Amino acid sequence: MSPDRRVSELTATRTIAISTAWNLSGRIFPLLIAVAVTPFLLHAMGLTRWGIFSLSLALMSAFTIFDLGLARALTRTIAHAIANGEDEAAAEATKTGIVVLAGLGVVFAVIIALGLHLYVGHALKVPPALRPEVMHALDVLCLALPLVVVNGSLWGVLSAYQRVGTYTIINMPILVVYYLGPLATLAVWHSLVPVMAVQVVCRGLTTIILWRLAHRAMPSLARARISFRAIRPVLHLGGWMTVSNLAFPILLYMDRFVIASVLSPAATAWYATPFDIIFRFTALPQAVMAAAFPAMTTAHRAAPARAALLYRRVLLAVGALVLPVALVAVTMAEPLLRLWLGAAFAQQAAPVLRLLGFGILFYSLDIVAADMLDGLGKPAFNARLALLEIAILVPLLLVLLPLFGVVGAAASWVARVALSFGLRVWLLVRIFPETRAELLRVIPVFALSLLALIVAVLGPVAAGAALLVVATFTWTRALNGDERTAVLVRLKRVPAA
Question: What range does the domain containing 175 cover?
């Protein structure tokens, strides 16, 4: 297949939509399991162990920072190789990157384990009788670090080639074990150690699946040699991405560690549980961007105007997916939490969930803007912005948390992500002028979406009316004539019930 034809196929809206659908199914499925299992896990563990477990899940997510930015840099490298027909060079960079990451992952796992021992022994407010169990559990958890960073690179290969459907299907049973396994172990051992062991085993099985599928997507990977010269440009690009990766867990998870240290692990549960639930819906924009990031990167290399068009369409798609989630969080926080986890828990956590409903919209749109900057080869902008956000967030958190408790922590997160999105949009317009006209079509839509969330505080009826207004405005202003025609044609093809 010629490079031009391959670029056309991989950047087609239909290709991105299919990959996004697979990504969504792979992310929504575990979300549904998590929602169903959480009350049982909370009951089986108790509030203190559940607070520790939520911190452990945060650590598992934070392990991705130790890929040194190589996972995203490799995806961008492969996308450029597709546009230029340079598969062999991309395969060499990919294999070398995986080997480097596996070795570094082991080193980082040992360092993190030692640091966690110091944190548990001196900073974490946990009952003395529970401290040895927590230390051993976190030791086991650190075994997953090399697997996490390698999995990110292998996933980059599949996403660059839009090959995620098979992986999603094969990985479904592993996801079931990932969430139901801890519950099963708690029925036998009342300890966090086997719970963490289940998480590590699931990551290992995922590595095996990704390795086999990556070789099928990139056949040249099997015969590629390890070449540190090939990885050098990727390391340069990944260096700035590493700064962003290092800042990410600080920005995302620092608040819960501060709460656990200043208040208690129980207070962490009041904040972390609604945060984890609302944050799981970032699987929606992440699913879209897993398909759109390599497509936009490839398009920018071959046709900048098409990359800007894809950017607008992705923003609209993400907004359409996330706004209903935000509306539900704002209007139904208290009754949903009461039904799910009980009245006492809902009383503490509902105000947090309402605020996070506003933040999830900003955060989701910010994911698109950040990925676009990375795709343009400007990871330095994201890194510098992340450092600026830390400088703003830390004092904001230290002021609001003592005054308003966990609600103050939620407010600081919302303020931070709103500022981040605004700054990234401003940067994109400056460095990629083709996006200016496309952004002018969608910014009014998202301003109206924010107003809809404010109106939605009045109740579900107001939320429904606000959503209808936003949908109508999007249809008439944010879509061009060809796009509206294409949507109508596809709707006509849907068979009647």
Answer: 3-493
